[in-house]
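Review form for a predicted model. The reviewer records the input and the model, then writes brief findings.
Reviewer: anonymous (R2)
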Amino acid sequence: MAKELAVGRFSVIETQAPSNPHISSVAQQTIQNIIDELTSTTREPNREEEFAEILQVYANDPIKTIKPGRVDIWLEDLSEHKYLIDLKTVKPNIEGFIGYKRKLLEWVAQELLRSPDSKIHSMIGIPYNPYEPKPYNRWTMRGMFDLSAEVLVADELWDFIGGEGAYQDLLDCFEQAGIELRPEIDEYFMKFEE
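Model under review:
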């Protein structure tokens, strides 16, 4: 869906794109320092400050080869901004937040190593809001993520990818498909009741 919605809005649209398998040791240490400060609450999350710290050290030797990860949605616009989105379940596990944050920061360091002038935006994407019509409860992410810059939920995610109104259009399409396919869906699930 993301690939189809992004057509016409982005010049590069990839799903499951491999991340750069190279990172500097100094960048890894800088990322660890950021994570340590966030988890000990001696620091508030701020994407711009964190990225600036990584930018200062991204190319320092030695360069290490690591196992490349996968970027769920990789978008680039005509202004050469790169948007690397990691899709997560609607209720992510608190223990996973440190790993998610590390991944976002590593993507920045890895991409700067490949392309030093990159304008990179790494984000967590949560496809829908299970609390609708109430706002998504982000308290579990507070303290680790810059919520206004690193987390896109439901309409924020899909409207970012597909343009204003894309999320509502998706909901309408799913509702219509559900109505039309209801007999087939019911028939399929009847097999499990027996």
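Findings: Residues 97 and 118 are 25 Å apart (CA to CA).
Further findings: The first helix runs from residue 2 to 6.
Recommendation: see findings above.
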